[in-house]
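Structure, all two chains, one model.
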Amino acid sequence: MTTTRVPQEERTRVMRQRLMDATVELLVERGFGGTTTTLVSERAGVSRGAQLHHFPTKNDLVVAAVSHLTAIRGSDLEAAVARLPQGQGRTEAVVQMLGEHFASPVFTAALELWVAARTDPSLHEAVGPLEQRVGRETHRLTIELLGVDESQPGVRELVQATLDLVRGLGLANTLGDDARRRRRILTEWARTLDAALRTPEGDEA
Amino acid sequence: MTTTRVPQEERTRVMRQRLMDATVELLVERGFGGTTTTLVSERAGVSRGAQLHHFPTKNDLVVAAVSHLTAIRGSDLEAAVARLPQGQGRTEAVVQMLGEHFASPVFTAALELWVAARTDPSLHEAVGPLEQRVGRETHRLTIELLGVDESQPGVRELVQATLDLVRGLGLANTLGDDARRRRRILTEWARTLDAALRTPEGDEA
């Protein structure tokens, strides 16, 4: 009997993980409104009692899933970064990678939380600071990947613009597959970004 | 007795208008999930019977409100366009105007519908084509305002990138007032766009 040999702590961790994975899946499939604690416990194969013990309310569950999502987003990005080429084509590789990242199911689940948090104060309290932290980390990573100097005028704003652009493309992708259009746009943006980051401010006017 | 002199057709138009205005307001204040037909009829001051006669279901109401929103979005943009300066500073004025447009309550209501439509097939059927049409019209208007030639390589993609950027900024603005950051980013974007649109493709490499 293997089960009895698994320490309690490990079984708790696995159960919580299954509940949060199920929550993220349901957010993607059915949206925030369609995600209920009953569906989550069914999907996770966890009893209602155990679920209620770990996450007494829907918001508890969803807030835990946000943190879980944040961790997924972080490791997704790091894995993608490891595959990037060095040298020529680097800028395009970085922006295409960011574009794909913001078009993934992880972005969709985050979008559901983000929009729900707009009109739910208790959710807002948890999602707001998390999104700020993730935003700062993504910004720092992008600066590092592009190898640019943020103390130069305009550089910080162009990096922020790149991240807001991929967020907008991510949103456009939620109503239908937008991958071809996205890739064309990001190819052109990478070219423009390379030119702008090489041109000292003022010389272009 | 003025009321009895108002033609039936006009009273119907006003009632429908009030129901749709109330729907848009509630989408902004409470989100898609928090918008109920009961709240709409209370807010609009229209009897439940009359409301159900015009819009039998929540989706009927919300889909009508989407078309209504589209019309509001169109006239908002046209009014903003009329205030734009000619000549120098035009590009920045255009992108800042688009930025403000996508940070308005009208964008927020559209975002609620957009996200709800992702997981609601009947809503998706109505919202998808509308968003495509609005997207095409906004694209055409932006081309015209910037006075650029879409047949030149890269121009179409940079205009699309500008619209996806302001959509991303609009989304960022829903969790808190992001106006200062947005204006800084768009100032830099306008500068970059001016430089890129004046540089023939290939010369920049």
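The mean pLDDT of chain A is 88.
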